């Protein structure tokens, strides 16, 4: 399934991220605009390592038509300019090397939970991604040692969801094919509940 952005010239001006003015001011923090507020999340090694491992697993399975972006602005509306940890978009769009992309391009969104992003990842982004029709959303949580797969987007969030404990494989049937991510080597926070 091809996903194309329907972006006009005037909209492309908006896509030059509001966050770009903060890019270098706060090293070590990930920034997004969520429900109208600028959110800064400190990044820990397990967060980056999980993104790296999931990215490598996805990249090895994607056809040449699809590519990955990471922590790039995706303006949803005036109150939400999200930066998915990973997002699968058409490779032709990724090659444009923009500072922001339309959410209409995203086939699969991936977030990795940090202590300050729990509400955003599990609730706000569930609703925002689903409302925009993003077919699949994965949440990797090193603090609970599980992955939540979400599909079947609806107006109030995803209608389908499964929770898979780390240790096995997460398998998702998407419009771009089946993807499998082995969770057995993903990092788990030392304080994670067993």
In short:
The chain is α+β, with helices and mostly antiparallel strands. The protein has 4 helices and 12 strands. Helix 4 links the parallel strand 7 and strand 8 (136-141).
Percent helix, as a range, is 10-25%
How are the strands of the largest sheet arranged? Answer: 3-6-7-8-9-10
Q: How many strand segments?
A: 12
What is the terminal-to-terminal distance?
39 Å
Derived from helix and strand composition plus strand pairing, the structural class reads alpha+beta
The radius of gyration is 16 Å
| Main pleated-sheet profile | 6 strands, mixed
Identify the overall geometry.
globular
Annotation field: number of helices: 4
Q: Let me know the average pLDDT.
A: 85
What order do the SSEs take from the amino end to the carboxyl end, as H and E?
A: HEEHEEEEHEHEEEEE
Q: List unreliable stretches of 5+ residues.
A: 4-16
Strand content: 35-45%
Produce the secondary structure layout.
Elements: H1 9-14, E1 29-34, E2 37-42, H2 45-61, E3 66-69, E4 74-77, E5 80-82, E6 86-90, H3 91-94, E7 108-112, H4 118-131, E8 136-141, E9 146-154, E10 157-165, E11 169-174, E12 177-182
Parallel strand pairs: 7-8
Antiparallel strand pairs: 1-2, 3-6, 4-5, 6-7, 8-9, 9-10, 11-12
Describe the protein in words.
- The protein is of the alpha+beta class and 194 residues long.
- It has helices spanning 9-14, 45-61, 91-94, 118-131, and strands at residues 29-34, 37-42, 66-69, 74-77, 80-82, 86-90, 108-112, 136-141, 146-154, 157-165, 169-174, 177-182.
- A six-stranded mixed β-sheet has the order 3-6-7-8-9-10. A two-stranded antiparallel sheet has the order 1-2. Strands 4-5 form a two-stranded antiparallel sheet.
- Strand 4 and strand 5 form a beta hairpin.
- The chain starts with 8 loop residues before the first helix and ends in a 12-residue tail after the last strand.
């Amino acid at each position: 399934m091809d996903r194309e952005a329907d972006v006009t010239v005037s909209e492309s001006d908006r896509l030059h991220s509001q966050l770009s003015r903060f890019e270098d001011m706060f090293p070590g923090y990930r920034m997004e605009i969520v429900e109208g507020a600028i959110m800064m999340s400190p990044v820990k090694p397990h967060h980056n390592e999980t993104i790296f491992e999931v990215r490598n697993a996805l990249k090895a399975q994607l056809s040449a038509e699809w590519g990955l972006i990471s922590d790039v602005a995706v303006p949803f509306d005036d109150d939400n300019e999200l930066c998915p940890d990973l997002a699968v978009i058409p490779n032709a769009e990724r090659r444009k090397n923009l500072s922001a992309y339309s959410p209409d391009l995203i086939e699969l969104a991936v977030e990795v939970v940090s202590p300050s992003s729990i509400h955003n990842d599990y609730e706000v982004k569930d609703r925002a991604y689903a409302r925009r029709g993003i077919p699949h959303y994965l949440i990797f949580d090193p603090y609970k040692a599980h992955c939540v797969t979400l599909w079947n987007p609806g107006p109030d969030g995803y209608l389908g969801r499964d929770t898979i404990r780390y240790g096995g494989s997460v398998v998702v049937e998407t419009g771009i094919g089946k993807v499998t991510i082995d969770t057995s080597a993903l990092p788990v926070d030392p304080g994670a509940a067993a």
